UniProtKB/TrEMBL annotation:
It holds the Pfam family ABC_sub_bind. This is ABC transporter substrate-binding protein. Gene3D superfamilies: 3.40.50.2300. Signal peptide: none annotated.
């Protein structure tokens, strides 16, 4: 892209943004589906990025607390939960684990962390939760887990383990519950950043946006297959219920 002298690079996910950052310090980069842009070193701050990168954050670390709270609301008696993180993204995994454990302490929930290095490890990881009688698992927001959403949904059902994920599309593919940004809306929002840059604004001065709206998505077909009855109060809060 740099050799082709493109005007702007759009980078989707943290790894893609890191690659773009390594490739150029001058060509504007607009990123999205990035959990923690300041923590990952893509910007100096959300309000003033300060370099050639700007875009949209998914605020995934901050939302880790809320995901556990919503899972507990879906399963009121929950006392133990798994947390699957990507072993190849140690800094993000550590931040999500710390935030989740802090919330779990307040909720009197024990957290069992499993580091996943490759898709082939998911089956064994689910089997491990099942053997330890852990009824639910939270997934950190990560491309690895999104790409394996159908496998994750199937493994959750076959092991009778409830799955809390970060993306509503994963729930539409069979996971139990999600809480997070509307990702298609974030892709559409990217166009406004491109427009500003093409009109002469510097990425250094275009604030990074966090999600303006968060969605709770529930799959009642999955809940029924798992033998769960989702409380009416949570159903009333849901932005989308799959029946």
């Amino acid at each position: 892209m740099i050799k082709a002298k493109v005007d702007i690079i759009i980078a989707v996910t943290g790894p893609a943004t890191a690659a773009a950052q390594r490739a150029t310090s001058t060509t504007p980069v607009v990123f999205l589906v990035v959990p923690d842009p300041v923590g990952r070193g893509f910007a100096k701050s959300l309000s003033r990025p300060g370099g050639n990168l700007t875009g949209l954050s998914t605020a995934a670390v901050e939302l880790s607390s809320k995901r556990l709270e919503q899972l507990r609301a879906a399963i009121p008696g929950l006392k133990r939960v798994g947390l699957f993180v990507n072993a190849k993204d140690s800094s993000m995994s550590r931040a999500v684990e710390e935030r989740t454990r802090s919330t779990a302490t307040n909720l009197d929930v024990l957290v069992d962390v499993t580091q996943i290095d490759a898709p082939q490890e998911l089956s064994g990881a689910f089997a491990g939760l099942s053997s330890r009688s852990i009824p639910a698992v939270v997934f950190m927001q990560d491309p690895l887990f999104f790409n394996e959403r159908r496998q994750i949904a199937n493994l959750g059902l076959s092991n009778r383990i409830a799955t809390m994920v970060a993306n509503g599309l994963m729930v539409r593919d069979g996971c139990l519950i999600s809480y997070g940004p509307n990702f298609p809306a974030q892709f559409r929002r990217t166009a406004s950043f491109v427009d500003k840059i093409l009109k002469g604004h510097s990425p250094a001065e275009i604030p990074i946006e966090e999600p303006a709206r968060l969605e709770l998505v529930l799959n009642l077909k999955t809940a029924e297959a798992l033998g769960l009855e989702i409380p009416a109060a949570l159903l009333a809060q849901a932005d989308e219920v799959i029946e």
